[in-house]
Amino acid sequence: MVLAWCGFAVLALFFLLYITPRKGAFFGDEGWYMYTAFRALRHGELDLFLPQAPAYLFNTAFMTILGAGYLPLRWVYTLCSMAAGVAIMTGVGGARGYNKVIIPLGLCCILVAGLSSVVNYQNGPSLFLLMGLGLYWLSRKTVQPVLFVGGQIASGLCLAFSSMVNFTVAPGLVLICLWLLYTAWRRKDVRLAVSPLSCGVFYSLMLGVYLSKLGLGELFNIPKGHGFHFERLQDILALGALVPACWALYWLIERIAGRAGATSKLQNRYAYNPASVGLFLATLVAAAYMVRFLLVMAMILPPFPLTLVPAVHPLIILPQYAYAVLCLAVFYGDWTTELQRRGVFCVAALLAYWAQQTFYSDIPVNISMVFASGYFMALGLMMLSTRTGRVGRVIISISAVFFVAGCLVHLYYGGWTTETRLTGPKVELDNPRFSGILESPERAETFTKIKQAYAEYGCKDKVLITFRNTSLIYYYLDHKAPKRLSYISQNFGMYMEEIRAILESGRPWCVFYSENVDLISNEEEERVVMELIETHAENRVVLGNDEPRHLYDDFILYTGPKSSGNRAE
Predict the structure, then answer these.
(1) What does the angle CA 196 – CA 382 – CA 323 come to, to the nearest 5 degrees?
(2) DSSP structural state of residue 16
(3) β-sheet bridge partners, residue 558
(4) CA-to-CA separations, 558 to 38, 300, 493, 512, in angstroms, rounded
(5) Which has the closest alpha carbon to 362: 112, 48, 121?
(6) Can you name the residues that pair with 465 across neighbouring β-strands?
(7) What is the DSSP secondary-structure string of 304-333?
(8) Angle between helices 124-140 and 145-164 (to 10 degrees)
(9) Greatest Cα-to-Cα distance within the chain, rounded to the nearest angstrom
(10) 3 state SS of 412
(11) Residue 560 forms beta bridges with which residues?
């Protein structure tokens, strides 16, 4: 137990003090999250691209206390995720016996898992959901009336937060609250209704205030890349059912073998345990994929042709592995315990949230579980621990270490976008909001050039457009984005008419564009937009594309409109 907690403490310090600053600044989604939170703080703006998911207001609230800096919000998210992990694991299973070891192992998994490092509309639902459920069960363990009621109210508030960060999960939240009300009725304990009822009160108040400021019409303004994705239903159902189907087959084979007497011999001779064997096999398969990934990254093996173990990104491997561990725990946990029943309820709630978020978002289905993968691991390992002996607990520890190591490898290679590497020379950016964020000298130079060009060409008083997932520039420069253009991803499609209207309005404008990001769709549509910008531009200023190239180090500034008889060079 002491070793596990010491390991978690060392990893937490390493993550907070070394990894978090050296991850650098992310131009894409994180940049947009920071921009929207900052504009709400400084200018009271709410209609910023995705009105159906006001997660940025939580970061705005944190900014009012901690300032508008980037790094403090990363630390806040880490602390919130740790609080959610402690709440759900102690609420589900308590902190007795072997759980004293499982809890730090689970926290290590939660600490390093995920895609973004600030609270957002993707990771927020699962974070606040589990914090709310954890507080609900923790409050039931106390005999102090004040603590009980306080815990229930806090639980309701967190459950309300889980949908306020992303309205798409509201149907799932309704089902959860109805089940909690049914539990109160079944147990004939009206006090247990405090959490779901307070959730309804808090949610109604927050939603009412938000809509009064936003306007009901704006709520139905759906940006590209979001909305009803009926074509994804088959993929969502397939991904959700594939792993449970594999474990169902494993369970069936094990039962048939058990009736034939084959497993009893193994149990007597080798302390055979099907849950431990299943976890070992899942870890072995995931490790094979990770080894292949490392060999490809080291250029020892080519990514193609495909072999028995194809090259797959850790962002796919690790969430699927975590989901496999969780599903194995559902099959082989001890159903006679309260821990198992509560754990399965969390599994159902998490999957309901995941399916709803994935249905309404354009994120690839095969990586969409990444936002809850740390919680999958923590819950799965805790549920499995009730059915494993000494050997099984060793395998559980190996599983947690493998998952953490895989996530660290993922971070080392720059995460999903490969924007930055943790190692190498680092410098601090010259911007008070980026205090403590460390970047490579090349990327720091890019930021400096953007700032200088912005000032030199008077962009402060002009309409500013920046795309190719570069919303961070709006936050960096504290410049308001045009309506519906605060986040332009080539993958979601270009906002042609909005961009054309600005270029042809006669008002002065600036456009920042980065070319060296490999995106996956709508290339023809982007080509048309760039031709339109080139046609209307007065100046074309190259801000950097020197070797070695880093993502987002090749910005070009276009300014317009073009004066009569002049052309962009």
Answers:
(1) 85
(2) I
(3) 511, 540
(4) 25, 42, 21, 7
(5) 121
(6) 511
(7) -S--SS----HHHHHHHHHHHHHHHHHHHS
(8) 170
(9) 91
(10) helix
(11) 509
* CB-CB contact of 510 with 470 (8 Å): no
Return all residues near 148 (Cβ < 8 A) that are at least 6 apart.
Answer: 139, 140, 142, 191
DSSP one-letter code for 23: T
The predicted-structure confidence for 360-406, as pLDDT tens digits, reads as follows 887 778 888 999 999 999 999 999 988 777 888 899 999 999 999 99
Give the global pTM: 0.91
Residue 373 corresponds to which tokens in the numbers above? Answer: 């993968």
Amino acid at 452: Q
For 492-559, the DSSP string reads G---HHHHHHHHTSSS-EEEEE-------S-HHHHHHHHHHHHHH-SEEEE---PSSP-TT---EEEE
Q: Residue type at 378?
A: A
DSSP notation for 252-284: HHHHHHHHTTHHHHHHHHH---HHHHHHHHHHH
- C-alpha 482/C-alpha 110 separation (Å) is 37
The Cα–Cα gap between 365 and 358 comes to 7
Q: Are 351 and 359 in contact (CB under 8 A)?
A: no
Backbone angles phi, psi at 116, to 5 degrees: -115, 160
Whose tokens are 């109805």? That residue is 178
How far is CA 559 from each of CA 72, 134, 199, 504, 528, rounded to the nearest angstrom? Answer: 34, 53, 50, 13, 18
Residues 6+ apart with CB under 8 A from 467: 485, 488, 489, 490, 494, 513
Residues in the chain: 569
Whole-number Cα distances in Å, 425 to 22, 428, 436: 10, 11, 15
Residues facing residue 428 across a β-bridge: 438
Only one residue has tokens 């109210």, namely 153
- Dihedral of CA atoms 121, 413, 420, 13 in degrees, nearest 10, equals 70
Which position has the token pair 């131009």?
A: 27
Which amino acid belongs to residue 234?
Q
- Per-residue HEC secondary structure of 29-76 comes to HHHHHHHHHHHHHHHCCCCCCCCCCCCHHHHHHHHHHHCCCHHHHHHH
Contact 107, 86 (CB under 8 A): yes
Sign of torsion over alpha carbons 95, 97, 103, 106: negative
State the Cα–Cα distance between residues 284 and 90, nearest whole angstrom.
29
Distance in angstroms (rounded) separating the CA atoms of residues 479 and 47: 15
For residue 24, CA distances in Å to 122, 167, 313, 426, 453 come to: 20, 30, 21, 9, 22
Give the model's pLDDT for residue 123: 92
Taken in order 513, 515, 519, 520, the sign of the CA dihedral is: positive
pLDDT beneath 70: ranges in the chain: 47, 49, 95, 97, 224-225, 258-272, 303-311, 416-418, 489-494, 516-522, 545-550, 564-569
Place of tokens 């590209």: 224
